Amino acid sequence: MPNNKKHLASKSKHYAVEESTTLLLFLLKVMPKRGRNSVKSILERGQVSVDDHIETFYKYELNPGQIVSVLPNKEARREGALIGMSILYEDTEMIVIDKEAGLLSIANQKEKRKTAHHQLMDYVRKKNPRNQIYIVHRLDQDTSGVMMFAKNEQVKRQLQDSWNKRVKERGYLALVEGKVKEKSGTITSWLRETKAHRMYSSSEKNDGQFAKTNYTVLQSNNRFSLLEVHLVTGRKNQIRVHMQDLGHPVVGDKKYGAQSNPIRRLGLHAHKLTLTHPTTNEELTFNSPAPKTFWKMSN
User: Fold this and answer.
1) pLDDT in tens, 59-117
2) Residue 19: CB partners within 8 Å, gap ≥ 6?
3) Is 245 a catalytic residue?
4) CA-CA-CA-CA dihedral for 59, 72, 49, 234, to nearest 10
């Protein structure tokens, strides 16, 4: 299945921001034939991206140098158009996507339709109304990158039950605050969850779920560092907690200690997934390039 990201990008209209303003005012200026309600509808449908993430908030503040991309209505309605995501791989058993930051993986109490799961469900049901899509694992709304779905419940269970055995590598890129001095390292702890659903580390053995994270510094300056992070275990919010433990929280992660958010999103990107196929046992690797802002901020 071809990647449709470049196709949709070529169909989008791109506008350079030259002065500080809000997203709604900017869109009204570059699309003078549209009214406020029309522009807000385009935003609500997820057809607007700022730099490398979907943005739906009409009061979002823009700065000079940013690029705003708008997918026209006719392209958004075109059969097969997926907003905020692209298909990296598809066969009879599974679909692997490249998700943009800002797109929900699955529905929550506030949003039911503008999700990766709902869009893929519509996509497969165009071929057969009885087709289904099943969640295998999740990415946070503000985390971008590689994500996998199963096409039947048997494959879903098979992948989830043998996840640690089948997944050979889960690689992330983390833009973190401050200059990380050690070029590489390993963080281990036992993770626990508060009643408010916030994860935290315990140094006491067996006090929670064991978590292990390896990292390597790719580049850094005095303000930010870009790390390549490999999960040895896959716990909830593991990277975010361990980066806080390291003293260098993920950019934009206020929940886990971040003091800044210059990229207006979470500085976390799932850039590599290597696994053994659930039926053919072939080893497959899927990649998603790092967002340009990650390199720019840490250079």
Assistant:
1) 999 999 999 999 887 666 554 568 888 899 999 999 999 999 989 998 777 776 789 99
2) 64
3) no
4) 120
Q: What string of H, E and C letters represents the secondary structure of 57-103? A: CCCCEECCCCEEEECCHHHHHCCCCCCCEEEEEECCCEEEEEECECC
Query: What is the structure's pLDDT at 76?
Result: 61
3-class secondary-structure state, position 199: strand
**Are the C-beta atoms of residues 212 and 261 closer than 8 Å to each other?**
no
- Active-site residue among 98, 122, 140, 207? 140
- Predicted confidence band of residue 7 (pLDDT cuts 50, 70, 90): very low
Q: Which CATH number fits domain 1-80: 1.20.1440.230, 3.10.290.10, 3.40.50.720, 4.10.91.10?
A: 3.10.290.10
Whether 1-80 shares its CATH topology with 167-271 is answered: no
CATH number of 167-271: 3.30.2350.10
Give the span between the Cα atoms of 203 and 19, in whole angstroms.
Answer: 48
Single out the residue of 141, 129, 147, 127 nearest to residue 266, CA to CA. Answer: 141
d(CA 205, CA 255): 25
Per-residue pLDDT of 220-274, as tens digits, reads 999 999 999 999 988 999 999 999 999 999 999 999 999 999 998 999 999 999 9
> Among 55, 76, 149, which residue's Cα sits nearest to residue 106?
149
- Please, which residues have CB within 8 angstroms of residue 126's CB and are 6 or more apart in sequence? 79, 80
- Cα distances from 197 to residues 60, 103, 192, 200, 237, in angstroms, run 27, 21, 9, 10, 10
d(CA 256, CA 243): 9
Cβ contact 267:253 at 8 Å: yes
Tell me 248's DSSP state: -
